[in-house]
Write a structure and sequence with these properties.
The protein has three helices and no strands. The protein is mainly α. It has one domain: Helix Hairpins (Orthogonal Bundle), CATH 1.10.287. Helix 2 runs antiparallel to helix 3. The longest helix has 24 residues. 6% of the residues are buried.
């Protein structure tokens, strides 16, 4: 997710996306160990999106 997209989200939407990305990351790790993952870059992209969402959630809570 891009920063512009994340800024438009509400706190509840951010939390839903966090849960979804955590599940995706969990599944990507299993796929990686089994050699089934088609795009290893997805893992890095998912981790970055998680970090962006957590940062924006923290900013919204302090504001």
């Amino acid at each position: 997710m891009k920063k512009k997209e994340i800024k438009k989200l509400t706190k509840s939407e951010i939390n839903k996306n966090l849960d979804k990305l955590k599940k995706d990351l969990f599944n990507f790790r299993f796929q990686k160990t089994n050699g089934q993952i088609k795009s290893p870059a997805k893992i890095r992209e998912t981790r970055k999106s998680l970090a962006r969402l957590k940062t924006m959630l923290g900013n919204k809570q302090h504001a």
